[in-house]
Amino acid sequence: MRPFIHLIFICLMLSLAGCSSLQRKAAVPSQQMGQAQIAGLSGVRYMVASQSSIDQMAADIQAGFKVRSEKTLNTSANYLSLSGGGDDGAYGAGLLIGWSERGDRPQFNLVTGISTGALIAPFAFMGKEYDPALRHVYTQLGPQDIFIERGLISGILGDGLSDTTPLYQLISQFVDDAFLKKVAYEYTTKNRWLLIGTTNLDAGVPVVWNMGKIASIGTPEALDLFRKIMLASASIPGAFSPVMFDFEVAGQSFQEMHVDGGAITQVFLYPSALSQRSQDLKLKLQKQRNAYIIRNARLDPEWRETERGTLSIIQRAISSLIQTQGVGDLYRIYHTTQVDGVSFNLAYIGSDFKFPHQTEFDTAYMQALFDYGYKQGLSGKEWQKYPPGYKRGFDEELPKK
After folding, report:
1. 6 has a pLDDT exceeding 50
2. DSSP structural state of residue 240
3. CA atoms of 48 and 52, how far apart (whole Å)
4. Do 37 and 163 meet the contact criterion of CB atoms below 8 Å apart?
5. Burial, 287: exposed, middle or buried (Cβ in 10 Å; 0-12, 13-18, 19+)?
6. Which of 44, 81, 99, 161 could disulfide-link 377, Cβ–Cβ 3.0 to 4.6 Å?
7. Distances in Å between the alpha carbon of 235 and those of 147, 205, 243, 324, 356?
8. In the beta sheet, which residues pair with residue 348?
9. Which of 220, 353, 214, 330 lies closest to 269 in space, CA to CA?
10. Which residues, at least 6 apart from 352, have a Cβ–Cβ distance to it below 8 Å?
11. Could you tell me if 197 and 206 are in contact, meaning their C-beta atoms sit under 8 angstroms apart?
12. What would the 3-class secondary structure string for 344-401 be?
């Protein structure tokens, strides 16, 4: 996240006490969250902190295995995780397109996305046919194509400093009935999974949505939900309005407020508890499994002299927190992959990228970053096998044999 986003967060914290909030339906009570369903769209999400949701995810995987041939066990399974990062998503888009043109980008069995990664994920899932859409979104668009500023006072008295109607319209331009049918086909006939993460702000928990299952329902409501989930995952708290989802419990109507998945985690692969449940069900997985994680951010700390002032100090602290949270997420994913025997492969923006970044969704910056990622993908970038600092630290501490 950039200083613009940090300042939004600060403005909200310093907003006038006693300001009235916008009206909404009551939130789903905590004790009933497990029973809450969207009308006509039940069982399409997992609250991954809940064992019942892990069990449901494993059951859905087991059901999907019915369309899988035995030959599949002798092929490699490839997973792709796309992180948050705002306009730094241009890096991931460029890398994927360069990888396509190189000719050895695999068809992914699983694609996950958070925030800007949620905007990339559906197109990465569908393959190189949608590379032109990725290129357009991350090289041709500017701030006016993403949000409309409301003004400071209106923003503080509302639910976000910006209106994301342009972003929803952009999503709708590409995600239509035909696109939904293609996603549904991949899910129902090939057991390929597309997952997008949001944050349930009422409960303070991560939510993972099964986008293939939603697509397979095929109703107008499913299409609208698919689009709204993409929007919610990219809705930075305070900067953009949250997305409200209507739920039903025992005939009563409630709402959940969802925001950027990055409020909980910067990148995710799959819940570690899922592995144990899969073993309990005796699910047969491919022996060779490869995870590719694209972190749309730099991982080296950015040195910057901090002004001695309240806002500057808070802004810098939040920036550091987000940066270290992202590194911690990579360590968590690495541990899970090593326990499960999955190959770990990591790409991120290196310290050699120096192009100046003036404003959010700066087209010139995004084009430069896209080109940087594209060259890496085209040249066959050597993926990192460890999170930053991991191997060196252990090599120095363990005695040589």
Report:
1. no
2. B
3. 9
4. no
5. exposed
6. 99
7. 10, 16, 8, 21, 25
8. 295
9. 330
10. none
11. yes
12. EEEEEECCCCCCCCCCCCCHHHHHHHHHHHHHHHHHCCCCECCCCCHHHHHHHHCCCC
Residues 6+ apart with CB under 8 A from 340: 275, 289
What pLDDT digit, counting tens, does each position of 99-140 carry? 999 999 999 999 999 999 999 999 999 999 999 999 999 999
Residue 209, H or E segment: strand 205-210
In this structure, what token pair is assigned to residue 386?
A: 């460890």
Query: Which residue bears the tokens 């910056």?
Result: 365
- By CB neighbour count within 10 A (0-12 exposed, 13-18 middle, 19+ buried), where does 240 fall? buried
Sequence-distant (≥ 6) Cβ neighbours of residue 387 within 8 angstroms: 327, 330, 331, 334, 346
Q: Is the dihedral of CA 345, 117, 156, 199 positive or negative?
A: negative
What do you get for the CA distance between the two ends of the chain, in Å? Answer: 43
Q: Which residue has 């419990």 as its token pair? A: 249
Note the pTM of the prediction, 2 decimals: 0.91
157: its two tokens = 């008295």
Residue 237 and residue 16: Cα distance in Å, rounded? 18
3-state secondary structure of 98: helix
Task: Give yes or no for a contact between 259 and 228, defined as CB atoms under 8 angstroms apart.
Answer: no
